[in-house]
Amino acid sequence: MSHRNIDHEKIHLNLARLTRNGNHFEIAVDPDLALGFKNGQDVSMNEVMKSEHIFSDAKKGLLASEEQLQGIFETSDPLEVAKIIITKGEIQLTSEYRNKLIEDKRKQIVSIIHKNACNPSTGLPHPITRIESAMEEAKIHIDEHKPAKAQLDDILKKLRPIIPISMELKKIELTVPSEYTGKAYSLIQGFSKMNSEKWNSDGSLTVVIEVTAAIQQELFDKLNSMTHGNIESKNL
Fold first, then answer.
1. Angle, CA 88 vertex, CA 151 and CA 97 arms, to 5°
2. Count of the separate structural domains present in the chain
3. What is the pLDDT of residues 75-109, one digit of tens each?
4. What b-and-e string marks burial along 15-45, b requiring 16 or more CB atoms within 10 Å of the CB?
5. Which label site among 21, 55, 86, 158 has the fewest CB atoms less than 10 Å from its CB?
6. 42 in a domain, yes or no?
7. Do 84 and 100 lie in a common domain?
């Protein structure tokens, strides 16, 4: 592999980069797969790489030489070199892709707040549009790499001066008749944290759950619709 120019599409590239001994190495990557590989997911390097080339400057189409690769990485195999670049180096994302990640993460955070928080004066969830406008007013910064739930506490602190938010959890015991347990079990799991479950002698299911006040009513509405109102509940 010689150090030369190659034909190169005039597009914005998501790159993985590594500098060693003053030499720069770059590969064009699929950003989702590259980030997954870096985070330990089992991903094929053939799918991660957009082309099997190791560049010294990807945007100019300059290839690293086999001598460079062998001297630095002790291999000139592009797939093996790529693994080292992604693992040890940094992944540089295009502004378009970063904006997509930020927008996706913002929607995820808004959804979490809408489903798990409420207005303490009414016990009802805030509308999504109200949460979005409050986040904009509070100039919330979204970290595209940090999990949504890990950012939640800081975001809620900044939102509370603008809108009242409570994340209170309620502990409830539910008993579902035997003919509805299959569907109800999956529904309850999706809406709440299940602390315990007990299958009764008549086939009914009794569970103790923790659920936010904001989504308690939605859960009850769905369960009552599913069981035609044949469900028992009590607050603990």
1. 50
2. 3
3. 999 999 999 999 999 998 888 888 998 999 999 99
4. bbbbeeeeebbbbbbebebbbbbbeeeebeb
5. 21
6. yes
7. no
Cα-based angle 72, 6, 36 (whole degrees, multiple of 5): 55
> In the chain, what is the greatest distance between 2 CA atoms, to the nearest angstrom?
77
- CATH number (domain holding residue 212): 3.30.70.240
Residue 75 placed within a domain: yes
User: Residue 105: its pLDDT value, please?
Assistant: 93
- pLDDT tens digits for range 140-157: 999 987 878 778 878 999
Question: Strands of 15-20's sheet, edge to edge?
Answer: 62-63, 55-57, 23-28, 15-20, 90-92
Residue-level pLDDT at 104: 93
Q: Residue 173 sits in which domain range?
A: 169-235
Q: How much is the pTM?
A: 0.56
